[in-house]
């Protein structure tokens, strides 16, 4: 896939398109992955959200507008229980949005 904006989380690599499966080094085991146009978010088994790629509009939710070529943990949100993630029209969506888009989270009835 395309890594033009760092959305694969592989760091600064010279190759902008990756055509073979490639493991992202030094990250926790992930539970779910959601890909945007030029960014990616992931949910790990501990409930932490990670993001990388284009951040021109703050869509990574990390408090600035700088692109990230490696996964960064989003620190300003609570951990997301796996129980509230669900499938949406986008496969494996983790239900996180940072720029006022409709999230794919169903809030549990408490």
Give a verbal description of the structure.
- The structure is a single chain.
- This protein is mainly beta and 110 residues long.
- Helices cover 0% and strands 21% of the residues.
- The chain has no helices and four strands.
- It has a four-stranded antiparallel sheet, with no helix packed on it.
- It starts with 29 loop residues before the first strand and ends in a 37-residue tail after the last strand.
- The C terminus is likely disordered.
Summed up, what is this model?
0% of the residues lie in helices and 21% in strands.
Explain the layout of strands and helices.
Elements (H helix, E strand, L loop, with lengths): L29 E6 L3 E6 L4 E5 L14 E6 L37
Antiparallel strand pairs: 1-2, 2-3, 3-4
Overall average residue pLDDT: 79
Task: Give the strand tally.
Answer: 4
Q: Output the radius of gyration.
A: 14 Å
- Major β-sheet profile: 4 strands, antiparallel
**Helix/strand order:** EEEE
Widest beta sheet: strand line-up:
1-2-3-4
Q: What coarse outline follows from CA principal-axis ratios?
A: globular
- Count, helices: 0
Between the first and last Cα atoms, what is the distance in angstroms? 40 Å
Helix-strand makeup class: mainly beta
Question: Percent of residues in helical segments?
Answer: under 10%
Question: How much of the polypeptide forms β-strand, as a percent range?
Answer: 15-25%
Instruction: Detail the poorly predicted runs.
Output: 86-110
